[in-house]
Amino acid sequence: MYNYGMKLRGFSIGCQPKGVIEWKDTNKAETGFYSIITYDRELTPEEIEAYDLMNLNAEMKICSECGREMIEGYCIENGLEYYCSDECLHKNISEEEYLELYDDGNGDSYYTEWSEWQWNY
To answer: Do residue 6 and residue 51 come from a single domain?
Structure first.
């Protein structure tokens, strides 16, 4: 099964690619999505983009600066913010501030690759 989040609207006729086998309306304030839809196939990148969906099967976070989906990058203060690149990080936090938060690996801020995408819905 393949799950996708509907970022701009909820499940309705013509608002998502054909072939949905299940859907669940959710509280957008809590999940970030109006609905979660399930398919028995993986959608193409073109379908995902055309319907403004988010692939919930992928290993990703969202950059707090540019909004890009990311599978690696900076996690600031245990997920308070995420940044996909040095450029995005340093638009918000100086190198010195980051190193203070990193605290030689003992802090709650770090650069990582996420190995597991977890979504609560």
So the answer is: yes
| 48 and 66 part of one domain | no
Give the tokens for residue 27.
């509280």
Q: What's the alpha-carbon Rg for the chain, to the nearest Å? A: 17
CB 35 within 8 A of CB 23: yes
Q: How many domains does the chain have?
A: 2
Amino acid identity of 11? Answer: F
Query: Strand, coil or helix: what is 30?
Result: helix
Is the whole model's pTM more than 0.70, yes or no? no
User: Could you tell me if 66 and 109 lie in one domain?
Assistant: yes
Domain presence at residue 87: yes
Q: What is the pLDDT of residues 91-110, one digit of tens each?
A: 999 999 999 999 998 888 99
Cα–Cα dist 80/61, whole Å: 12
